[in-house]
């Protein structure tokens, strides 16, 4: 797994632990440490793919974009040097409001609602967690998986993050029972 230097060690550990728990059947986790310029190139490459996918309207078009992507020589050499076949790049971003800040935002929303006579009432968001993941296969020299999951939840709550990771990798690394309980998929199935 590759981490951005701006991510806290606590957040890195939580995501790594959740990923190990979720996909431990499939692979061993190896943290890659590289320079900032390499991080920037990697994120630039995968975010370009993501922006193309956001613009695409249909699932089939999104799949065409994923299928047509090939990895750069720099990314290939990084994977070769570290002797890894699949590179999982995970990006997590989130925020949460303190109780005092949330109260202020609710009061502000109420004031705006009264001033506009109820025509416009903004609803403040208490917390948000965004998790984006890409899986790059060196043997296929292509992006084999791309997904994002955004929820209104506390970004460091372990139970919520575990469910978000499960849903992010659903049908790729994980499965879910009808009651929502997550389990790792076995290799070859």
Q: Secondary structure elements and their pairing?
A:
Elements: H1 9-23, H2 36-55, H3 59-68, H4 73-81, E1 86-96, H5 99-115, E2 127-137, E3 142-151, H6 158-168, E4 174-176, E5 182-184
Antiparallel strand pairs: 1-2, 2-3, 4-5
Helix pairs in contact: 1-6, 2-3
What would you say this structure looks like, in words?
The chain is of the alpha+beta class and 189 residues long. The chain contains six helices and five strands, in the order H-H-H-H-E-H-E-E-H-E-E. The chain has a domain of 127 residues. The strands form two sheets. The protein has a three-stranded antiparallel β-sheet with strand order 1-2-3. It has a two-stranded antiparallel sheet with strand order 4-5. A hairpin with a 4-residue loop joins strand 2 and strand 3. The protein is globular. The two termini are 24 Å apart. The model has no long low-confidence stretch (mean pLDDT 80).
């Amino acid at each position: 797994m590759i981490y951005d230097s701006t991510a806290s060690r606590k957040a890195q550990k939580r995501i790594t632990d959740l990923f190990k728990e979720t996909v431990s059947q499939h692979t061993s986790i190896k943290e890659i440490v590289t320079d900032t310029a390499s991080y920037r190139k990697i994120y630039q490459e995968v975010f370009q793919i993501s922006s193309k996918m956001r613009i695409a309207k249909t699932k089939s078009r999104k799949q065409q974009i994923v299928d047509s992507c090939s990895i750069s020589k720099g990314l290939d050499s990084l994977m070769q040097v570290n002797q890894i076949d699949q590179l999982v790049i995970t990006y997590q971003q989130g925020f949460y409001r303190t109780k005092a800040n949330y109260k202020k935002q609710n009061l502000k929303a109420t004031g705006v609602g009264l001033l506009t006579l109820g025509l416009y009432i903004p609803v403040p968001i208490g917390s948000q967690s965004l998790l984006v993941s890409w899986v790059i296969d060196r043997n296929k020299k292509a992006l084999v998986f791309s997904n994002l999951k955004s929820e209104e939840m506390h970004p460091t709550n372990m139970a919520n993050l575990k469910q978000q990771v499960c849903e992010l990798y659903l049908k790729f690394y994980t499965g879910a029972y009808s009651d929502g309980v997550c389990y790792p998929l076995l290799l070859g199935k």
